[in-house]
Amino acid sequence: MNTCNYDQTRCFDICWLAELKESVPLVSLDHPIYIRSRTILSGETFPPERHSNCELCLIDEGGGLALVGKEQMLRKEGDLLVYGSGIPHWFLITSYPFNLHSAVQEHAFLIFEPPIGRLKGKRHEVVDY
What we know:
Elements: H1 8-15, E1 21-22, E2 33-40, E3 49-50, E4 54-68, E5 71-76, E6 80-83, E7 89-105, E8 118-120, E9 125-127
Parallel strand pairs: 1-3
Antiparallel strand pairs: 2-7, 4-5, 4-6, 4-7, 8-9
């Protein structure tokens, strides 16, 4: 007899991790960055994944719930998502159409070159000279 009581809402917080797949992005030393754009008009998105590469995603249209490890965050158009190496992540789309641009990098860290110009304030806005 099962004596374990659980709240299905709380279970959802981490149950998606059971479906986690190890993803192998199409990157190599010869092609260190893989860039893709996706437009999803309806239905489910890609399966939960993790990989040894870093991933940078820009939501161009739509939105939903980003699940990263044990955390959940609502994300919308214009948001930038950064997934570190080995971090489990998934995205549940709640607003269609959903348009996403992503870049996966061969290295275990993201190479970021700051914009030319002065950085101002906490939001690092670029100020022209």
